[in-house]
Write a structure and sequence with these properties.
about 700 residues; alpha+beta; Rossmann fold; eight-stranded mixed β-sheet; five-stranded antiparallel β-sheet
């Protein structure tokens, strides 16, 4: 059971990774003591200030004139938009009470529609959909620019839902109660103003809510510090406090498990993205689930699953990092923990995810960053110490990814799988374990001619001797003469894995032009489990950058490309990655696209949600600055440096990383009279950089055209 705050990692948005689209509640301010007196660009931290926005408008105009106001850009943007708006895309669905629900954006519905259909209809080439909520119509009626973010519906009937709407695509949302039978918002129902809010249903008349209750109610990381129980018909001020955390906590949340016969309530205190404590709420008291704070804990029916991030000794046994363990929940809570090992990693494998069906557990295992799926069947409840049965589910094509798109753990053993590869368009399969084998219900069309390309996986030795994999998508007739325009993409943080994926945007905007596309699986990610991630934490952060540079050097050594033809792209934490390529390894690259990035690592904890990432990078207000400063691009850029052309893009409404860092880096480089420094800021879109398909196509086209132009 993961809190949404633990899933809102800095890299929840991987810019350019796929073709689906995933407000500052207050300005990025800081205490006087945290301000750097020798920073001449602090004024750009006033996110919506007149002076800041005038600078943004000026820079946008310059960048638009150079890279946007031309026919080639229009062609690239329209080609990407055609993919994003295509009716042939797979409408991914979530089952709720016999209906299949889908949120959909296209040309006719730029902000999107929430709709539903039946399984029988969904099987058809052109299903008939029942419209539930039209966001564009809502915006017109309310004179707003709402962006649909998420929805939580009350089991078992799924008639009442809590809909989260962002005013501009950021993480801060307004939460409103919605009634599906009448297809309308509930008059006088649960309604919370715009804030970084987390809610969960307890029953039809009660919810858990963590939100901005007033001064001091949010953590330093800008997430809820207090969680309350709120009853219908009472003012929010009368809600009962369940738990108050500390300002230094990442977030506090509460959850209700409504599974019949296993109804339980939990409170989770996230200390940072990798450490948390979970408590069961029993008769008003909190009883802790005693597991390591860095482990993921998941109660489900009679079972408790624990996924370790570090070695754990318990009950006379020692379990390794990256293992998945199972115990009987009641026995565990009674102090008699007896764990069964469900997965143990090795040098080549890690556990990417797991999903319950009614009677089974599906494991998604990465084997050298390629998927395989296993099905585990637990022993009967009467014999919790019995053997778990293990079977292999038929695999996916080579160099591919299998993702469990949905299951029905309350009622059936139905499962939905999404399968894709770099050159294999996504397909959606449905099956029922034990009775109906998987069948392909939907197949996405090819958005580019994949027959011209080939995919390979290669390994390179990094500076410290570590073996690092990367994927290369290249023309079959590629000449190894160093002349190929090559785009190297990476992330390397927050235990996020970069697996094979299909992108019509990448295919059209890069591959079909004759380019080579490379994805580096560097340390800091989760490709080889927690240890792969931890190898690049804090003082070890440069290992991720050494890995990325090693891949770049290997591409040059093999004469796939050369420095003047090699570009780097990364967003968010990946923006910090390519920012360090700019300052540490400028000789390896001909151009860099740095998107919604972190760059000022001295100030990051005082900007937007930055305080939540100290578990990843360290605290620059302590002695940690001695190592953090070595990978702070804002502090390492030099006036006399020789840097490749760079494009920084961000969004005004990004309330996770914020636009401040990209602004300041661009302004500082320009003030140093460094050439070819470009900046662009979209007003909407939050950390995803686009509030609709049109905006997303615009931003991606700008990055691809900039790189293609500079690498010629």
């Amino acid at each position: 059971m993961k809190s949404v705050w633990l899933m809102l990692a800095l890299g929840a948005t991987l810019v350019g990774m796929n073709d689906t689209i995933a407000h500052d509640s207050k300005p990025a301010t800081a205490t006087a003591g945290s301000r750097s007196s020798d920073d001449p660009f602090l004024w750009l931290e006033d996110i919506r200030g007149d002076r800041s926005m005038a600078w943004v408008k000026q820079e946008n105009a310059k960048t638009a004139k150079q890279f946007i106001d031309n026919a080639e850009f229009d062609k690239t943007r329209d080609s990407i938009l055609e993919v994003l708006d295509s009716d042939a895309r797979i409408p991914l669905v979530r089952r709720m009470d016999g209906w299949l629900y889908n949120f959909w954006r296209d040309k006719a519905h730029p902000r999107g529609i929430w709709r539903r259909t039946t399984l029988a209809e969904y099987r058809k080439a052109e299903p008939k959909w029942d419209l539930v909520l039209d966001i564009d119509a809502l915006n017109k009626a309310e004179n707003q620019r709402w962006v649909f973010k998420s929805v939580q519906c009350l089991k078992p009937k799924y008639e009442r839902c809590l809909v989260s709407l962002s005013p501009d695509g950021g993480d801060a949302v307004r939460v409103r109660e919605f009634d599906i039978p009448s297809k309308s918002f509930v008059q006088g129902g649960f309604d919370l103003p715009v804030a970084k809010t987390e809610v969960d249903w307890i029953d039809r008349n009660t919810i858990y809510v963590g939100t901005d209750f007033g001064p001091g109610s949010m953590t330093d990381s800008s997430y809820p510090r207090i969680v309350k129980e709120w009853r219908r018909g009472t003012p929010l001020t009368a809600a009962t406090t369940v738990y108050e955390g500390k300002l230094t906590d990442l977030a506090v949340s509460a959850m209700h498990d409504s599974t019949p016969g296993y109804e339980r309530d939990f409170v989770q205190i996230a200390k940072d993205f990798f450490h948390s404590e979970m408590y069961q709420r029993v008769n008003g008291k909190l009883v802790r689930l005693v597991v390591p704070t860095d482990a993921t804990v998941d109660p489900h029916r009679e079972w408790l699953l624990v996924q370790t991030r570090s070695e754990w000794a318990i009950g006379g046994e020692t379990f390794p990092s990256g293992a998945l363990l199972a115990a009987n929940y009641d026995q565990f809570m009674a102090g008699n923990p007896r764990f069964t090992v469900l997965f143990t990693p090795d040098a080549h494998t890690s556990l990417a995810s797991y999903n319950w069906t009614r009677h089974h557990l599906i494991l998604d295992v990465l084997d050298d960053v390629k998927s395989r799926v296993e099905v585990l069947t637990p022993p009967p409840s009467a014999t919790p110490d019995g053997t778990w049965k293990r079977e292999t589910m038929p695999g996916a094509p080579a160099m591919s990814t299998i993702r469990v798109a949905d299951t029905d753990p309350d009622h059936s053993d139905e499962y939905w799988l999404e399968v894709a590869g770099f050159l294999t368009p996504s397909s959606l399969q449905r099956g029922v374990l034990g009775s109906a084998p998987a069948e392909t219900l939907k197949q996405e069309p090819a958005f580019f001619d994949a027959s011209k390309f080939t995919v390979s996986q290669r390994f390179v030795t990094s500076k410290d001797g570590t073996r690092v994999p990367y994927f290369e998508v290249a023309p079959k007739d590629m000449k190894l003469d160093g002349s190929n325009r090559t785009l190297l993409y990476g992330y390397g943080g927050f235990e996020v894995s970069l697996e094979p994926f299909y992108s019509g945007s990448v295919g059209r905007a890069w591959l079909e032009r004759g380019g080579v596309y490379v994805v580096a699986n560097i340390r800091g990610g989760g490709e080889y489990g927690p240890q792969w991630h931890q190898a690049a934490l804090k003082a070890n952060r440069p290992r991720a950058y050494e890995d990325f540079a090693a891949v770049a050097e290997d591409l040059i050594r093999r004469e796939v490309t050369s420095p003047q033809h090699l570009g780097a792209e990364g967003g968010s934490n990946g923006g910090l990655l390519v920012g360090n390529m700019l300052t540490m390894y400028p000789q390896l690259f001909g151009a860099i696209a740095c998107e919604v990035p972190l760059l000022d690592m001295k100030r990051y904890t005082h900007l937007s949600a930055g305080a939540s990432w100290m578990g990843e990078y360290g605290n620059p207000d302590t002695a940690d600055w001695n190592f953090i400063k070595t990978f702070s691009p804002y502090h390492n850029v030099k006036k006399d440096g020789h840097y490749p052309p760079v494009l920084f893009y961000t969004t005004t409404s990004d309330d996770r990383v914020g636009p401040v860092q990209a602004r300041k880096m661009a302004a500082k480089m320009q003030a140093m009279s460094l050439p070819n420094v470009w900046f662009y800021e979209n007003l909407e879109g939050g950390h995803g950089a686009g509030a609709d398909n049109q905006q997303s196509a615009h931003m991606h086209a700008m990055a691809y055209d900039f790189l293609w132009d500079q690498l010629k």
